[in-house]
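ok so I'm stuck.
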Amino acid sequence: MASLGIFLVGFLLIGLSLAQPALATTLTFQWTGQQGYHLEGSLHYPDDLTAGRITEQGQGQTQAIDQLVVAIYSPQGQLLEQYTNIVAGQSHNPYLQLTVNPQTVRLQGEVDVGGTQPQEWFLKGKLGQTLHLIKIDQNGQEIPVDQGRGKIAVGT
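replied:
not stuck anymore, here's the structure
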């Protein structure tokens, strides 16, 4: 019986040593508005993803994106805020909208990333049209701060 236990432990250890962690693709993106405000972001999704596109919306379990972080900078380059909208496959942003095409490594469609509370910032709009950088004031009102072409530069 003891030899069976040793065999099973040995078998388990060999299996664990051969197991490879899942690899992830990191996609980085940036946007600059007409007034010079700047947003930088990064997201991670599994390398083996075969879907034609990933659309993440709202709060809760994501389809495929494991992590999404966005940082917003002033025209002078000062970090204004940083938001982690997705952590370990869970979205914490009820307004989140983001679509990624893993085959073309591009963002598509509607975008809504960043903050959700008073005194926070977010970027919203449609790619290919106009994107707006908005600050939520202390009363919850959305104040447009900057806007720009609906183009986000993407890299890996």
